Protein 1
Amino acid sequence: MEKEFIITVFSENKVGLLSQITTVFTHRNVNIESLTASESAIEGIHKYTIFVKNDEEKVTNLVKQIEKKIDVLKVFCYSPSEVVLQQVALYKVQRGRNVEDLVRRHNVRILDIHDDFIVLEKTGHKQEINELYQMLSPYGLYQFVCSGPVAIIKSRRELLDEYLDYVKEYQKNLE
Amino acid sequence: MAFSGFSDNTTPQQQRNLPRISGSEAVIRSFLAEGVDTIFGYPGGAIIPVYDALYDYREQINHILVRHEQCALHAAQGYARATGKTGVCIVTSGPGATNTVTGLADAMLDSTPVVLISGQVASSTLGTDAFQEINFIEITNSVTKWNCQVKRAEDIPEAIAKAFYIASSGRPGPVVIDITKDAQNGLMNFDYKPMKFIRSYIPHHNINNDQILEAARLINLSRKPMALIGQGVILGGAEQELKEFLEKSGIPAAATLLGLSALPSDHPQYVGMLGMHGNYAPNIKNRDCDLLIAIGMRFDDRVTGDPSQFGINAKIIHMEIDPAEVNKLVYADVPVLGDVKKTLPMLTEKVTKNDHSAWLDEFRVCYNIEREDVIEPAIEPRGAHLRMGEVVDAVAKEFDDAILVTDVGQQQMFASRYFRFKRSRSIITSGGLGTMGFGLPAAIGAKIGAPERDVCLFVGDGGLQMTSQELGTIYQSQVGVKIVLMNNGYLGMVRQWQELFYDRRYSFTELTNPDFELLAKANRIPYRLVEHHEDLADAVKQMHQTEGAFLLEVRVEKEENVFPMVPAGQPVHNIRLE
């Protein structure tokens, strides 16, 4: 059965690694719903947040294949309930009284104001972003752009730290 | 590429004391530090500096000049699999690099440790579509265990140290280091430290004792167990550990194609080869087993047939070094992660001494059926024409303890079925990728790696012509490979499928062949043709007694089929004897 999964990949900062990671998905014919890449909280370690919809078995295998890449430190896979997710969307919309109402009701930020249009920012879940999209559409939506979700786990400690501790221990045992 | 850069950690005083050499010389001296004695390669524009450095080290390193870069890889694979060491190749950029892709893919699928150094255009021209420039890192992403591009001379030793460590540790595989020409020409202070640790790559995780205990419990309860031996046993050097495990537990053992020779063929508990053209007993008995113990194997579809039916009545213990293989194709009731060299003795300690002789007898009954219906007609045929099975049998009788190298196709299956193995690392064949043309260059590499052993290559007329230019390498480097050409004038395996599943529509599988005698003579290789049963033994003997290389062409039955056979995608117990 298809479910949503959030895969977070921690890696060394290596040129070309993104393409190695996406190859794992294309090789197994799995579509990436969204992907964000950035530095992690730990210096020198990059983090990718990948959103997929697929069956659990396939995703579990996928996670192991990504982790097999030499420059990948650790991969975690979460269901949406295990993380706090947030997306950001920008809307370029025609000015008008109705729009201002929507801005107040939906906790939307105004980023830029022009004579004939305004740029709005909405952060939230995909569903809220879509709802606002539907509501703004009748009033002249010129442009719309939406990021993929970023995610933070609900447990207090970053799980990568445990891996790094394990690796330190491993290295100590080598010496 | 973020290098830790140990050369930067040294003090200025230390820096002055280090020898200042070119990046190219650093490549060669790094090889020497890794114990490399043989390189397979082909020069070209973007790698000339490395070849220039190699010129000064001709006494220490034996460079084999192949005739095509694909064959440099296959030869390095043959060398690696015969010796257990890492095979090394050097090629130039562009076409030199792209020609190696098949060899890298083959090494990737068959877990063979190979390090390939490819030349690259100068870093200032990268991305400009310069002459012989190709983005080789991108191309090799899915056919290497690891790759990296080096653009500064001072990064070369660490990149090579990493390459050898990654290629040979854990589940081995091919590694590419792409070195720009300016990095080859640049000067640097040489200091080599072998790599022992990479924080993002832990090849050996701690062994989970609970998994061992649970596996032992299942083994001790099992009444009808079978062990499945994979190449992991050979790669881990765990042949003795395997023997001790089997002899204490009394369990019958079958081998995958690449697991052949890990256990001697005449071991009383050895019950044959698994897979599509494997032996009857281990396939037909698969359904009766209550426990399968997979030891360093990956449930390739040629072994499992329909994976959902594989070991349908059995629990499965999967002893495996690569976590990504566990539950990939067949669900493992008990995974035992780790190098089998370490996990097997732990398991042996926990299993109770047992005797499964009644169960083993059931395999013998199946073997006798196969012997009568398939093996005897194959090795002692009554018809007028020579058959592949009898050729393999004749070679196996004459050559005691040789390394078997095969190409891909019918001769591969006949050779692996009817050859006899006395010790480990005695079969070199392209299993996962099924690369036609693999045989000849792999045999060259094997003979160079193990000059004290006979190397017998079985190759078809199709496969030989895919890489026959390497006969030139055999002549130039005087490589004593014994080549048995099984000539049936067909791409036999495809023809067999066309006969069985495509209504005998032989679409483009018939070959009009060149005169192989002239081909041998052109390369100054002794040659003999055999067409009749009565000449076979003598011809094989002549091949054995002739010093150096030999090409024995055997005209075999044109339309022979390999049996037994599990039709693709079907359960293995649907194995057909005819």
Protein 2
Amino acid sequence: MKELLEGSMAVAEIIKRCKPGVISAYPITPQTHIVEGLAQIVADGQLNAQFVNVESEHSAASVVLGAVATGVRAYTATSSQGLFYMAEVLYNIAGMRLPVIMTTAARAISAPINIWNDHQDAVSLRDSGWIQFHAEDIQEVVDLHLIAYKLGEDKSIMLPVMVCMDGFILTHGLETVDMPTQEQVDKFLPPYKPPYKLDVENPLTLGPLVDPEYYMEARYALNETHKEALALIPKLTAEFSKVFGRTYNGLVEGYQLKDAEKVIVAMGSVCGTIKEVIDELRVKGKKVGLLKVTSLRPFPVDEIYTALKNIPKVAVIDRALSLGSFAPLHVEVKAVFSGKTKKPQSINSFVVGLGGRDITKDSIKEIFRLMNGKEKGIEFIDLKPELLKENYD
Amino acid sequence: MTETLFAPGHTACAGCGQSMAARLVLDAAGPNTIIVNNTGCLEVFSTKYPESSWRVPFIHSLFENAAAVASGVESAIKYLGKADSINIIAQGGDGSSADIGLQALSGMLERGHNILYVCYDNEAYMNTGVQRSGLTPFDTNTTTSPAGASSLGNLRPKKPMPEITNAHGIPYVATASSGFAQDLQRKVKKALSIKGPKYIQVHVPCPLGWRHETNLTLVVAKLAVETGLYPLIEYEFGLLSNRRQITPKPVEEYLKLQGRFKHLLNKPEELKKIQEIADNNIKKYGLKVEAQQA
């Protein structure tokens, strides 16, 4: 059924249909509407779940860890500082192979404190072991949560999954959403039946001390599972398509790539703006395109190689920094082509929209204009040079 | 020997008070129990992969989050409709309970989860090598509160965790000691018979950190209680309901067995201060046998 929904309410509605038994969260802008929505859904008796209001994000992540370890599906959501406060627990959840599903309302990191959207929070957690999806619009946010549960809880995967949606732009934006019915969701997503759990009938020790004899294999296995997830994600999205009629690749999505000479690589809601610019420039005969990265982890190396190997000029948009080094997504796209003979002539790096600075169509056009075949360091778009001339004398 | 739920063969030090107390706690709780453990000595010496001492479901996540993980376990158990048949015990050392994990513990108590929290109090960060914690006693020589030419050791008295937890309005708070096994087990059983959050703090000597002979663990534990330095008390629904009464012994009898207090033994002024701490406890909780008869 198609409904006009705020992004956060759309998430609450799809989570309701996924039937988690335990929900735990701590308020942080711009995640709040999601958990407020779920709290009301539970209060109204529409979902049989334990809603645990905790004293911090660290405990929110710990509560869902405990719930999933007990064999019950769980859900949490956070943003920015909250995600960082969870970070220790998030690494632990992945290492313990517990398929917690969470929404990250992507937001800038302090200091300076800033509640608006960029990707610094989520991207900084890329090494945590979580599968990390980035959604372009609210429909994709909804659908990726369903795929997240199915993927994370697959017995061959058993990994947590983070669905990132751009703060405010998607959490507070309104969109007509084709909300899956409960029957469709039940058909696609079976109840959670984990291969291991805390059970007095079958006592297990979870989270033991692992010494150098065994540790490396546990971490190696995690990394291997990410590769398996790369293979499973397109299968699940194909299955998803059969039930819901919407088609995703789940790893990357190309837009106007076929004859493109200039292609931007990006994640999240900015992809919508880029597509609009592409449509305008195509009318003028410019051969431009987009490669949207949906799955930052696992990183779809082969798909990116195949999509970009014949593109002469590539630019990667980052909405985060790795301070003191290359931009995070850019360096990984570059790494895809390391040692390859077929590769773009140039892969440029652009940083845009930090801390919620608007990324306009002009910002995107400027990037296409700057893709002149010569690689440079990071180029910041829409930077205000006048603000950099502070005089402290 | 009847089979214990906490299997022998673990790697605890000789004379470890915590391993004794953990076994007593679990055996009192019985097999329908899930243990959620903070990082610390207990988790390290009992779960070295691929072995485990735990014959009940056991989970360890991080240093400071056992109370929160247990809250998730309890919520899941409630969701599954098994809340009446399964005990949930969250546990950790003094550092992970009273310092870094206090926030998570406070949240667990405030939310009213049906969980027993057990703090094994060996009065310092023993797993990392005897650094002081919020529960290290006054004047204790630890590696981060060393005695020296211008220091007599730890500057502050123990954080009053029984009162802090009791102030949350929870139904049951108790202190116990590995030196009084039956008393400890009675308190665990009593706690588990009460719905809601419960807190038991167990005094557990650490021969390595306290620097006493490994065969003196129980003697040292008992003396802590018998001097009034570690009062055994119970609060039920906020009110002091019980205390173990003693014929107080001088604190020096307790202190002189332990290297961590050795620097105080020729300092009567300091001994007097520690005797005052014991005396205040005796007065505050009515620990003296005569006091009750009067």
